[in-house]
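Notes from the 1:1 (GR / supervisor)

We went over the backlog. Supervisor wanted to see one worked example end to end before approving the batch request, so GR pasted a single chain during the call. The sequence is below; no edits were made to it. Supervisor asked that the structure be written out right there so they could see what the output format looks like.
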Amino acid sequence: MSGDDGTSGNSGYGRKAFKRSRSHFADRITADGRDGWPVAAGRYRLVVSRACPWASRALVSRRLLGLEDALSLAVADPIQDDRSWRFTLDPDGRDPVLGIRFLSEAYDERETGYPGGVSVPAVVDVPSGRLVTNDYQQITLDLATEWTSLHRPGAPDLYPHALRDEIDEVMAGVYHDVNNGVYRAGFATGQEEYEAACSDVFRRLEQLASRLERQRYLVGDTITEADIRLFTTLVRFDAVYHGHFKCNRWKLAENPVLWAYVRDLFQTPGFGDTVDFDHIKRHYHQVHTGINPTGIVPLGPDLSGWLTPHHRQELGGRPFGDGTPPGPVPAGEEVPAAGRP
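Structure output shown during the call:
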């Protein structure tokens, strides 16, 4: 989510149709270090906002793969100011590892005055304080495939070779029509633009519901990167996208298949334990002043339904394949009670 507009990735909106730009810093952290950034335990820090669906992908992946000790975590305040994502949740308003007040400081260490916004997720090189990457599309794929030497025992294969073509195909449709589609609808400045985007959202959701009616997960019988990418939009749907972004043909809770699917994932260790509904609601409703000029944060929706039985296990499937669930959330990374069902 970018500092200039409060949305996600490096994005823009205005009089023209909403268009998400490519990540400006696309270096990769790899096992062989071919971009100059080798995988190394303790060297890098992942900076996220729990409000941001794109950053939340990295939160889920990191938990599922057991990378908490290898890749430290910085959580930004859900409310930005004109200097970008800020570390006001930490003592003295500074990230305790990087020693900075604003994520923009790490961007400036990499490239002073670059023309894009300051976005999360971002991976920062701790020794130099320089941004390494803000490529939200690639970060999680690399966590799954390049960081394998640091995965926990029993970590799932989130991007299995045999299924990558199908995973990529599913993710492309989800990205265009759902992940990004809700933003195209929410930031539309014309009726036709809005209706086209909103129609795309629900057309794709209905297709996904048909697919998930007969199988527990999007691709294969285990959780993959495709499920993570769909989850982070669905978990925000009723809380912000239905009302705030006018994606209101129906609520997720009114679709039996998708509502059961997202509850299944939410109740799976590594998913729901990364979600902070308080941060989500406050960010969208207080930062997007062009959409919600009063800054009023809605009281609803009721979150108690997230913990109700989903019965998706009756479809079979093995959430972690031949692996095991992740362990408890590390001390200090727990979602505060205000953000949980």
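Supervisor's comment: The beta strands are 10-12, 19-21, 44-48, 72-75, 122-125, 130-133.
Batch request approved.
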